[in-house]
Fold this sequence. Notes:
Largest sheet: 8 strands, mixed
Helix content: 25-40%
Number of strands: 24
Structural class: alpha/beta
Number of domains: 3
CATH class of the largest domain: Alpha Beta
Amino acid sequence: xxxxPVRPLRSLVRSCFIFLLFLSTVILIILFAIPASSxxxxxxxxxxxxxxxxxxxxxxHPHGPSPTTVPAPPPTTVPLTTVPAPPPTTVPPTTVPAPPSTTVPPTTVPAPPSTTIRPxxxxxxxxxxxxxxxxxxxxxxxxxxxxxxxxxxxxxAPGNLAARDAxxxxxxxxxxxxxxxxxxxxxxGLPGGSGAQELQEKxxxxxxxxxxxxxxxxxxxxxxxxxxxxVIMDWLATHCTNSTYAMKIDSDMFLNVENLxxxxxxxxxxxxxxxxxxxxxxxPVIRNPNSKWYVPVEMLADNRYPTYTLGMGYVFSNDxxxxxxxxxxxxxxxxIEDAYIGACMKKLGLSPRNSPDPWQWKAYLGNYxxxxxxKVITYILSRSSQIVDYWTDLKKTPALMQSGTAxxxxxxxxxxxxxxxxxxxxxxTYTTFxxxxxxxxxxxxxxxxxxxxxxxxxxxxxxxxxxxxxxxEDPGRYHVAYPRGYKFVMDEPEKCRTGSQAxxxxxxxxxAPGNLASRDAxxxxxxxxxxxxxxxxxxxxxxGLPGGSGAQELQEKxxxxxxxxxxxxxxxxxxxxxxxxxxxxVILEWLVSRCPEASYAMKIDSDxxxxxxxxxxMLVNPDTPKQNYMTGxxxxxxxxxxxxxxxxxxxYEVIAESEYPPYPLGxxxxxSMDLPKKILGVSPQIKPxxxxxxxxxxxxxxxxxxxxDPPSQSLFAVNPLNSYELCKLSTVVAVMTxxxxxxxxxxxxxxxxxxxx
Length: 757
């Protein structure tokens, strides 16, 4: 019996649990003691750092890619003509960076002359194409005796016997899952360096024992991972054409085959043209020569990689290998293997897709959690022994787990009872207080949409007037209170009528009332661009009503700011993060009623750097449509999250489809001025959800319109630029920032005299 990894931490876990219980109880009591009227969480929503984090909590969500961590830029290395060789037992180059202790340093191992890669024999294929190589070790009948449903292909270094044996003892033993045959094979290149001949002999002996090794005659090195992956594709295309799916998975991965098969058997998972895993969008090609992942322009001219799946593990329908091998003849090889597969997909006119539950594709392990491992598909581990330990623990029978259960009971029983008693006491006290307050005839009437009583301030009087005599249904947790006949309490109705010409472009910036710092930063930077290439540009801020303690004082400051700058619009809805959809729809209402003669409008967040020059250049291009046009960083096939623990979870009763319609990410999107009226016209047919950009996508779908990708994906960047990338500010349209000082720094760099780079 393998002891659970949690057992040695018994005393530490006990102490931590009791401490957290005590801390939680204190916090609960403090929060209960604070009057409801003075507790207001909006300040947290308004923090730029929180907003930035919020966009990244779901990579595939409208506000960002992944619910775990932000993966690093795709690793890029030196050209393939050099032949250093660390064993490819680490995380693929584009995966999330590992702690130093979990990776193998990329030391260079010189190859002996006998294993040096020779030039291609013909001019038919470029260097590195899989058909320039041949198998010196093969298992040609593995897919002929019985057609597998799923083939697991594991690229591994010749010397990494420990990883192969660990997989053979764990998930590699899963050969029949839910009635579906699963085949696992290892892909090797030639060993290099001193001792290569002896190592090759050991590999030959291993093959005679296990009959699960494939070996091709390229040098097995970290830089040749793209060659290894393409050889895998070629083997699948020539030896295993009848299987349904295949997976390329690294040797340091934990794989839950049961969950993978469950996903692939879903009715909504395609059988053709399908590639999924942990998706990467709009990743930059690193041009810094000092970077480990530097890629020169000669190898790859594009500055952004196409959408791709991280190389740690991705699944694809088995019609793709043959097509990828064939199309790769036209794509110059570069050594970022997962990004190269993305380039092949783009050339085929295809794109990787999010899996039904993207959270099942995990990056690096924090602490082992048996419950979590039972739900995921992949996890990156740091050593082979972890695969065995975690697999054994996960596969324990109830009898073997009995001692662990007893331990858990002894460890948590008394603290849990204490916690339950405290929670019950607090709940009863709070319920009693609430009932007494509700039944008090002297209590003030409170507006459900603002959280304030009628006599709080003069602004709220107009709010109450909006609802007087009208009964609206409660929108609930997942919807928002729109439409509700909102009125502007602060307006600039003549902004689009003054001057000799209507604005060509209107920039609408939704911002919280208390975020004066962002408004002032924009006024000092791109918001000051009023005439660009002879085109008039108008910038305005959109606010809702402040809430919580100090709302009246904050509103007075907003009134003074409006008198000074005359660029604020304010409507009578409560300004909260949940009400972003309301704010966006009110922006559209203002554009339709106040600015119908403009050509284009842009909704842009207050934490975004905007290059107005490039934006106008894009819009005046003759190829840019004048109608039915919306662009930005367009999200395709973004899944509706069904995990109740996710921040952006939506149940089936709210939206039945498994994917959102295409939509541009909310940090900044441009539209032709015919669209606001059309969207408002169709919106009553679609109950609004609180995810504002996805809701716009739903409205566009109802209109039969699809957002358009920008001329270049690199024009809209969701990742802030590194210090060595600031020259790119002259080439983008919009880039997110994390703080006001960063926005000011970007503008200072962008406007610096001299060439941009």
